[in-house]
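Same chain as my last thread, 209 residues:
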Amino acid sequence: MTARDRILTRIRRAAEGQSPPEPQRLKPSIARTEGAAAVDQFIAKAQAQDTTVTRLSSIDDLPAALADELRKRNLPAAIRTGSDPIFDRDWGTIERSTGPGRIEEPATLTRAELGLAETGALALSSGPDNPVTLNFLGETHFAVIDASTIVGGFEDLWARWRELGLNPRTLNLISGPSRSADIGQTLQLGAHGPVALHIFIVGASEPLP
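reply #2:
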């Protein structure tokens, strides 16, 4: 039955005093994904958008993993973060500075509140713990996320966001490094922000403090 037929049927039923048929219910287009399946999907979607990923068993493994990534990318052994308590640790050979992002920064590190398996996006909340400028200023953006906070779809993301009671001034959804194809229809990474995004997924059974 076409849309025109459905409309005419409703008009005919109304004219005859009959009750209209029950409206068709839309089925969800994307199945709910949870747990390990959500993490796997998140990784696949993120990698498809030129994001690199490292899985860590513990947040204590972050300094060594970050040092390794900085070496691979020929970046200085330095990182800039906000005041998030999870970054108050021994960074070994890495020099850590804190505060808002700066344009000359080689590398920044932030914590994502949630991950979205449906698109491979990170949900980052603004504030002194993770200044929003760290997401966009600097050559390479590193982000850390707890595997337990990766949800399936957008509906799950907003539900979890409300559960957490978050009310920041800004919420940023970031998928992959900055990119543009405005000039000559040729994709350029780092056009309006970081040239690279690397995500550390912490597979701890308990949420990060």
